[in-house]
Design goal:
By secondary structure, the chain is of the alpha/beta class. The chain has two domains: 189 residues, Ribonuclease Z/Hydroxyacylglutathione hydrolase-like (Metallo-beta-lactamase, Chain A); 68 residues, Arc Repressor Mutant, subunit A. α3 runs antiparallel to α4.
Length: 278
């Protein structure tokens, strides 16, 4: 159930409220999760849309003790301020990353670190640093439910756009592989419905990215030195051309990864790329 503004109980510890910001990049809208009943953590408060803030406060109000953000893109964190001002809640997250799509208003009470734990009588929430989509991205593992709140690390219905320079394909794949160390049962994404068989989901994503990388390599070997605009037509020939503008961002991330591994060469003068002989 993804109706906007309606609290929907996923299990005994978690409710979900979907923000009214549906779109190409946000799917049905941003998922805000409310953890606990007596003392509540609001995870990803979402955009600062008054109706969405009102829905959060109406659902949990004076019981909100914490505001937790997976990252600071403007569809995930900006409502933190209104919720914090209304409740006095502690703000948990990482400071905005150095890229062009950030909620620069976000100010955590302390800087989040990998493996930090928020423990209450009702739940245990563990921070998992998952850079890739953006450098300050964290997933959160709800230990009692074996549920991972994935933010934009994993989305239901589409793959995540990796936007350099803060977005990093090498870090993204490594962060996905890190998740396989956790005993996951459910993935609660930032957009879309819950996802079961979590290990299979993560393994599919790793394989998908590596297959795309192999296609980048094969395409460069086939066409030789070329521009990003030309390469995206070959590498993403299975994607509607209306999405090629966004695909170029992830393509850039793949090429940067190959460059870091000394497998591809970038020519800044004409912004072209070619494979290196190995």
């Amino acid at each position: 159930m993804l109706d906007h503004g309606v609290p929907f109980r996923l299990n005994s510890r978690v409710r979900r409220i979907v923000a009214p910001n549906a779109g190409v990049m946000t799917g049905p809208g941003t998922n805000t999760y409310l953890l606990g009943d007596e003392e509540v953590a609001v995870l990803d408060p979402g955009p600062a849309i008054p109706a969405h803030v009102d829905a959060i406060l109406k659902t949990a109000g004076e019981r909100i003790r914490w505001i937790v953000c997976t990252h600071t893109h403007p569809d995930h964190s900006p409502a933190w301020q209104a919720v914090a001002e209304a409740t006095g809640a502690q703000v948990i997250g990482a400071s905005p990353a150095d890229d062009m799509f950030q909620d620069d208003t976000f100010k955590p009470d302390s800087e989040l670190q990998h493996d930090d734990v928020l423990a209450t009588p009702e739940f245990t929430l563990r921070a998992v640093h998952t850079p890739g989509h953006v450098s300050n991205h964290f997933c959160f593992f709800l230990e009692e439910e074996k549920m991972l709140f994935a933010g934009d690390h994993i989305m239901n219905g589409s793959t995540v756009v990796i936007v350099p320079p803060s977005g990093d394909m090498k870090a993204y794949i490594e962060s996905l592989q890190l998740l396989l160390r956790y005993s996951l049962k459910w993935i609660a994404p930032g957009h879309g419905e819950l996802m079961e068989d979590s290990r299979a989901v993560v393994e599919w994503l790793v394989n998908h990215r590596l297959k795309r990388e192999n296609k980048v390599i094969a395409s460069l070997q086939q066409v030789g030195r070329t521009s990003l605009d030309q390469l995206v037509k070959v590498v993403y020939d299975d994607v509607d051309t209306s999405l090629h503008k966004m695909a170029k961002l992830s393509l850039s991330a793949h090429l940067i990864k190959l460059n870091q591994e000394n497998r591809a060469l970038h020519h800044p003068g004409d912004d072209s790329w070619e494979m290196l002989e190995i």
